[in-house]
């Protein structure tokens, strides 16, 4: 198990016996620092942070949940080192926009509310001078941000949303330093990627809570939640979640901590369960609450998963969106909120495809998101026909949510999304039966295209092993649905007659909804015997 460096005092100070302020970060923080709201730091409810503040290893990895106090820890450690010694520190966030927000909302208030009695310059967004030290705030997405300056301490926040090769470029900045500290921290995303990959190389410390009644010690999981309380798995007595200690679970030279929201006593068991219900995407629940990587752990879609989402035609409410996957055969899918209401297969002369999609959009007063790669000329034609109503989707690793308000989206009509993550969310929506599908004569294609999606492990150019979504055959309607899902939201009403008239073929059953459970999983045997194959 990795131990704190015994030479911390020798490295950072010439004083034979260092002062408390030079070696006790927790005490220094309580004495000198305030939160961005100006309140003193208080650790009675955050017992899990104490050992982290007292950990003096030169390399530290933290796999963390959201809103758990780790970014504040990183700020305090950086400012302590800068205030106590003449050093250079690099603190990275994923993008330049993240840096600006972090500088103005987190770093500047921390400095303004602090009790540090040293000169400080905080006007510059990207550079802060604290005494004789310099703190550089930089993005970890563009090569231009990786400065050619020496560093004593690199802090990388939200690592999973940063480019791995940029982090490696910053690593070179430490090579000339006698200190050479690095702190990597992030909410996780995919297995074997980013923070999860780094954490796997550490001693993987977990927070063990000890029951005051029977003495049993456990890592907190959802199994501990009973009757809306965190209880001992042995005697069922309510646990004091602050009564715990960190313990390494493997032997390694690097220290790593895994911090979940279950360890935070101000977040109740009932609130944890409510978050599980509230999160739209299961991956977000695992990442931000449990600090666990997630890659669609239940597996990919089956035929039964899709069939149980079938429902009868009814009037539905929601913004009408067309997802388009261009090709020699073009596939279009219409969604309204959580309903798939129309599918179209467009064949023949490809020069007519954009016009046929525009016709569907016009009949349903719909917007569209289209595949970018294959349809450059088709997209241009569609954008010219229906300005302001068409976007192109470009897959970009790490882009977790589409930003329709960005300059890129408004002017270039392009949105970015992570291919694997978005497809996983689209499939999870069906596995959880959170979507209804109106049956049509393209259902067999729809099912086949989704069943052709596969999970694969691959090694990227940085040597990282990642789970990606591949395909074993045509997957066009899966992408068309995924595109449409990105924009579907509330607003507008479309009727069964309008749906049926959207294409040349009458592709939908128009019987009235006479089922229970909102028509989902209805008895369709009489008109859909082909489904039983």
The helicity comes to 25-40%
Distance between the termini: 57 Å
The residue ranges in which pLDDT falls below 50 over 5 or more consecutive positions are 1-7, 504-533
Count of distinct strands: 24
Shape: globular
Q: Any idea what the radius of gyration is?
A: 27 Å
Kindly report the average pLDDT value.
Answer: 83
Strand content: 15-25%
| Strands ordered across the widest β-sheet | 3-4-5-2-6-7-1-13
Number of helices: 18
Describe what you observe in this structure.
This protein has 533 residues and is an alpha/beta fold.
Record the SSE blueprint.
Elements: H1 8-12, H2 20-23, H3 25-32, H4 47-53, E1 59-64, H5 70-84, E2 88-93, H6 96-113, E3 120-121, E4 127-130, E5 133-139, E6 153-156, H7 164-171, E7 181-186, H8 194-199, E8 205-210, E9 217-219, E10 225-226, E11 229-230, E12 244-248, E13 255-259, H9 269-278, H10 282-289, H11 303-307, E14 316-317, E15 320-325, E16 330-336, E17 339-346, H12 353-364, E18 367-371, H13 376-385, E19 390-395, H14 407-412, E20 414-417, H15 419-431, E21 436-437, H16 443-451, E22 453-459, E23 465-471, H17 476-487, E24 493-494, H18 496-500
Parallel strand pairs: 1-7, 1-13, 2-5, 2-6, 6-7, 15-18, 17-21, 18-19, 19-20
Antiparallel strand pairs: 3-4, 4-5, 8-9, 8-12, 10-11, 14-24, 15-16, 16-17, 22-23
Helix pairs in contact: 5-6, 12-13
Task: Describe the structure using short key phrases.
533 residues; alpha/beta; eight-stranded mixed β-sheet; 18 helices; 24 strands; 30% helix; 21% strand; disordered C terminus
